[in-house]
Amino acid sequence: MTLSLSDRIDELSRSRVPFVRATVVRAQEPSSAHPGDRAIVLADGSIEGFVGGHCAAGSVRTAALAALDSGDGVLLRVLPDTGEAFPETPGASIVVNPCLSGGAMEIYLEPVLPSPVLHLVGASPTAEALATLAPALGFVVQRADDVPGPAGSVAVVVSTHGGDEVSAIRRALDAGVGLVGVVCSRTRGAAILDELAPTPEERARVHPHVGLDIGARNAPEIALSILAAIVRAIRVDGLAAAPAPAGATTALPRTAVDPVCGMTVTVMADTPHLHHDGTDYWFCNPGCRDAFAASLAS
Question: Engineered SS bond to 116: which of 33, 80, 127, 154, CB 3.0-4.6 Å?
């Protein structure tokens, strides 16, 4: 049974698959799309749903993949090369598509990215408080007992209170995690670092006695201070998730410039293509490809 677009969006969200939700906001005739038409664009460039014909969809695909890469939403204005336009909208990204058959369009592109993963090691009161508070801030909590490793996590917090902290820290560092916090005293933290013997680059990622100084005294307050430090690292310092396990991500498809109309197109299996004299050319639609082929033959 074919899923509705809403069901497909729910499925992708549950599976933590990144995608872009595209919604037609405005469309002028003779555009084939109408306000409210929707589609999703996946990281491999595939489009599910409808936001216009071949040329408009190509512009949406290319802009959506850029939005997926940046994580920022964008209002895409697609204009034919006829002077047709909507009134100016601050913050819009404008694409003039010479091959569009008429009808200016505006499409809102909203990247939908998986929630950041917080990997917890230990079953201490602080770890339990973190597991309770973190989802309210949009984190997905993983426990070391339930998943094979911390790859793909934005941060790891080790709260074993005397357990094998060094091994847990080493696994997180080797997985590329950018913030590895340890719930411990400053004295214990110094001893952990001596035993760990991290490189200078690794030392910058390890945070003994983790958390902002808010005078925390109990487990929920300590958890709050730790989450505040992680949020600050994400929002202020640009902390990103560690690389996902091999094979879990899809590389963004490459782009090319249509030699006829100058449009930037995303190279897909169905992108109009021509191989000539040892060079590959890609086009926004078959018309541009045929025109280019004719110019080579003349």
Answer: 154
